[in-house]
Amino acid sequence: MTDSQSLAVKAVIAVALAISLTGCGTAAKEKTAPCKRPANLTAYGPDPRRDCPSMTSVNGNPPQALAAINALTAQ
Questions:
Q1: Does the CA dihedral 12-15-18-24 come out positive or negative?
Q2: Mean pLDDT, residues 33-54 taken together
Q3: According to the UniProt entry, where is the signal peptide (predicted)?
């Protein structure tokens, strides 16, 4: 076996070993969800969200609003 063949065999073995090591333990991580908080822990902190105010009309004249949009796109 020449030096280049020996080097190629060693590289293939190293790549196969690296692939086999990266595959270890990933199945358990995919089955669990560590980012989800359990239901019994969600009530410990106050809820920072506020109630939304009532909706108000923004564009009282739709044709005028469309004309303004078209004027902006024409520029």
A1: negative
A2: 67
A3: 1-27
Over residues 23-37, the mean pLDDT reads 57
Structure tokens belonging to residue 59 = 């564009």
AA identity, residue 49: R
User: The tokens of 32 are what?
Assistant: 């669990």
Question: Which amino acid would we find at residue 25?
Answer: G
Assigned token pair, 21: 């090591």
**pTM, full prediction:** 0.31
CB 65 within 8 A of CB 59: yes
Q: Token pair for residue 56?
A: 């108000």
Measure the N-to-C terminal CA separation of the chain; round to a whole number of Å.
72
Let me know: does 61 contact 67? Beta carbons within 8 Å. no
Paired tokens of 11? 């590289």
